Structures are given as structure tokens and as C-alpha cells.
Amino acid sequence: MKNFRTFFATRYGQDFLNNTLLVTSLILSILSLLFRSIGYFFSIPGLILSTILLFRFFSKNKIKRSAENETFKGFMTPITRQIKLIRSNLKDSQRKYFLCPMCKKMVRIPRRKGKVEITCPTCHHHFKARS
Ligand SMILES: [Zn+2]
């Protein structure tokens, strides 16, 4: 039991990049099952991603894995921000959501007020948008 614990304490483990690799490889596995005739088209990239996932999970070089994760997060931030914006606009029928062009923070205003000038509460940048 002690060896088991020390083994995992010295390994990198799970992070945002590994979670993304896991979900992507699962989706690819499902697609390879659904489209059996071209299954290799999905299963080979899925296997490659799973191998990277296992390598990263059991890696002892925590500093390098952490740096990879931070780079990946930086790459994914604009995408996750856009997804959050679309989701907020779909959920809320009373307010419209925008991203401040300067600081990229989400700003919300009441809907159906025509073209308005918005002042970002974070960086005080002014920009025009249709509500
Ligand atoms: Zn701003």
C-alpha cells in the first residue's frame, strides 16, 4: 500500500490537458464503433491520444507536464471563452452578453435597447454594440 502511494505521489497525474485528451479519445472510440467501415480513421488518432494521456499521467517530469498544460490552457482560453459567451446568450433571454475587445471579460447588457455604447466594468474601455 505504501509503495502504491509513493508511486502515484511521484507521478504527474491528471490535469486539464489530460482531461481533454481523455474526452477526445473517448469520442474517437465511439465514432470508430459507429462507423466501423472507416473505424481506423478514428481509432488510430484515439490510440495516439490515449498513449500521450498515459505518458503524461505517469510522467515524473511534473514541471514539463505542468508547462505543457499551461500552454494548452492559453491556446484553449479564446475557444472556451467563445463557448461560454454562446451558452450565456442562449440561456439568458433578458440580457445580451459581449466580450470586451480590450480585456476579454464578459459584459452583459439588457436586450432590445438598440445600438448602445458599453463601458467595460473591468477596464473601462468603451465599445458599441447592438443589444
Ligand atoms: Zn474590458
Characterise the protein shown here.
- With 131 residues, this protein is α+β, with helices and mostly antiparallel strands.
- The chain folds into two domains: 2-91, no CATH class; 93-131, no CATH class.
- The chain contains four helices and four strands.
- The chain has helices at 2-9, 16-34, 39-57, 62-91; strands spanning 95-99, 106-110, 115-119, 126-130.
- It has a two-stranded antiparallel sheet. A two-stranded antiparallel ribbon has the order 3-4.
- The radius of gyration is 21 Å and the shape is elongated.
- The termini are far apart.
- The mean pLDDT is 94.
Instruction: Specify Rg, calculated over alpha carbons.
Output: 21 Å
The percent range for helix content is 55-70%
Within the largest sheet, what's the order of strands?
1-2
The biggest beta sheet is recorded as: 2 strands, antiparallel
Beta-strand fraction estimate = 15-25%
Short note summarizing the structure:
The protein has 131 residues and is of the alpha+beta class. The protein has helices at residues 2-9, 16-34, 39-57, 62-91; strands at residues 95-99, 106-110, 115-119, 126-130. Bound molecules: zinc ion.
Defining key terms:
single chain, 131 residues, 2 domains, two-stranded antiparallel sheet, elongated, binds zinc ion
Layout of strands and helices, then pairs:
Blueprint: H1 2-9, H2 16-34, H3 39-57, H4 62-91, E1 95-99, E2 106-110, E3 115-119, E4 126-130
Helix pairs in contact: 2-3
